Amino acid sequence: MTTIAVLPGDGIGPEIAAPAVQVLTELLGSQVEFNEFLFGGASIDAHGTALTDETLEGCKASDAVLLAAVGGPKWDTTDPNAPRPEQGLLGLRKELGLFANLRPVRPLPALYSASALKPEVIEGTNLVVVRELTGGIYFGEKTRTDTSASDLCHYTTHEVERIARVAFELAGRRSGRLASVDKANVLETSRQWRQVVHEVAVDYPAVEVEDVLVDNCAMQLIARPSSFDVIVTENLFGDILSDEAAMLTGSIGMLPSASLGEPGTPRPLRARARLRTGHRRTGHREPARDVPLDRDAAPRRPRSPGRGRRSRISSRRRTGQRTAHRRPRRQCDDGRSGHRRARSSARLRRVPWILRPTSGSTANSSRGTRRRCTS
Question: What pLDDT, on a 0 to 100 scale, did the predictor assign at position 3?
Answer without folding.
Answer: 93
